[in-house]
């Protein structure tokens, strides 16, 4: 790829050119670099032109083309003179992942997998337009948007310790429901506790490999253990918040004299009225997503209790981490501590031991980083290092990253064929739509092992465990 400067085997730099205020960096292997679209590189360079950006624009190993800002992208802006861009956070605000542990081994579950998976599928509404059975009034929705996962726990849908094992304790205090439109409210009140479609899933997994036994032991992970991964976000509410604010920001941008190379990167100063208001709306949508994942996990726990008779509190949350979000964080830039608005779009926070944001549970180790793969491969748990803070604003990859668009995948596959192929490999799939299964075919994604190996070899985070899928619920 032209114009790239190889800094080491896994880090490439795009030097400043044109309107770029800082360089851009790619964390990829040579094999993954071949799969990076020119459009994603152009988007990364465009991000580097935005006012107030510090250090460099970052592309993770799972980088691919997105709306304005690449998926698998990270950028940080000074809160005093930098911008915030809704395109840098995305439409599915606080799409994220949580991993629930169980006391079961694969031999305990194998003969009962179909029964458990069916119970989960029947208790968590899934698919395009899936609606919740929760009947929420306006006042309830406002509390969800303000308090996030805490609202769910206080309403008997979780354990208090779940909050200590959730990024931000599942609650951004900057949230303001008044910055959310009526249309977003209406979409959200019908969808709390639903999975959705696309790449969202609930997976019953088995721990196949342990790479760091001491950390795994501290975190309650062991070989052959049954765990459950949940991947979803803020549903239609988050999409509506993004839609509303992209329009507002694009209009307001003119009065601040900001010009961007792509209208999808519309941005305003973070410190402006519009910038702060968008951040408050985004935070409210993020809280909705944390409540959503908390409620879904509650229902998964209930399904295990009902079908297997194990106790609810025997299934602790390992961690819940967002990968489409903006955060106000302190980071060292050129030797000085700065307060930054960090955009992570398709990127996971990776804070090592000692960061003030961490709960006591993970103060000594750093929090778990969760990286899912496609439904035919594996997923990983990693532990962050200081190098993540030094190089990537405490950020890691978030998944495998697409190599086929959904349209391309549909042309290549039939959902029924994918389900049969996975069943032949011992993976049971239940889906509300065969179309979704075809769109999410395993070969639509990069090799998650390769993605994670880059993160591990660069030293941003170290592999702790690898899980393989056994049962999958899709929308």
In short:
The protein has 475 residues and is an alpha+beta fold. The protein has a single domain (5-85, 92-474), classed as tRNA-splicing ligase RtcB. It has helices at residues 30-35, 38-47, 106-109, 113-123, 138-147, 149-154, 160-164, 182-189, 213-219, 235-252, 273-308, 386-392, 406-412, 415-424, 434-439, 448-458; strands at residues 5-8, 11-14, 24-27, 57-64, 71-78, 83-84, 96-105, 201-210, 225-232, 268-269, 317-322, 324-333, 336-345, 347-349, 369-371, 379-384, 395-397, 428-431, 461-474.
Task: Describe the protein.
With 475 residues, this protein is α+β, with helices and mostly antiparallel strands. It has a single domain (5-85, 92-474), classed as Alpha-Beta Complex (tRNA-splicing ligase RtcB). The chain is built from 16 helices and 19 strands. Strands 7, 8, 9, 11, 15, 16, 18 and 19 form an eight-stranded mixed beta sheet that branches. A seven-stranded mixed beta sheet has the order 1-2-3-4-5-13-12, sandwiched between helices. A hairpin with a 6-residue loop joins strand 4 and strand 5 (71-78). Helix 4 (113-123) packs across helix 11 (273-308) and helix 8 packs antiparallel against helix 10 (235-252). The longest helix has 36 residues, at 273-308. The two termini are 37 Å apart.
